[in-house]
Amino acid sequence: MIASLSGKIILKREKFIILDVGGVGFKVFLSRKALLKIPQEGESLKVFCYLNIRENILDLYGFLNFEELELFEIFEDIRGVGPKMALEIASLGPLEKLKKAIEEQDEKIFEGISGIGRKRTQAIILELAGKLKSFPSVRK
Fold first, then answer.
1. May I ask the CATH architecture of the domain 4-63?
2. pLDDT tens per residue across span 18-30
3. Which fold has domain 67-133?
4. Which of 72, 96, 109, 136 could form a disulfide with 90 if both were Cys (CB 3.0 to 4.6 A apart)?
5. How many CA atoms lie within 13 A of 113 on its CB side?
6. For residues 32 and 19, which has the higher predicted lDDT (pLDDT)?
């Protein structure tokens, strides 16, 4: 399992980067928010990773901190939420902000994420209500 990668960004695109790690280029999908935060091509970067293995797919998803990775894993387990959608949801904000929005059933938190309409938002909030309560608070 690939848990993290450290290397030099050799290519930066709209949805992914290619990270050179010891001469091997890894294509790593990042959220739009993470892509705005990372350095430019030629700079070094460390990402925590989730390797998505399906029938004929091996995709790496990258996160700037471990908490986002943990949140991603919770979201990816929700029925109807795939890894690309879970990536965007996990980047919405700090855990406490997400917990509060879920507790208050604030559907606006998911606005702007492609593929999430009103019904899916309600289903996600319902499933997340119990899962996020047991999720540990932000570590310092």
1. Beta Barrel (2.40)
2. 999 999 999 999 9
3. DNA polymerase; domain 1 (1.10.150)
4. 72
5. 25
6. 19
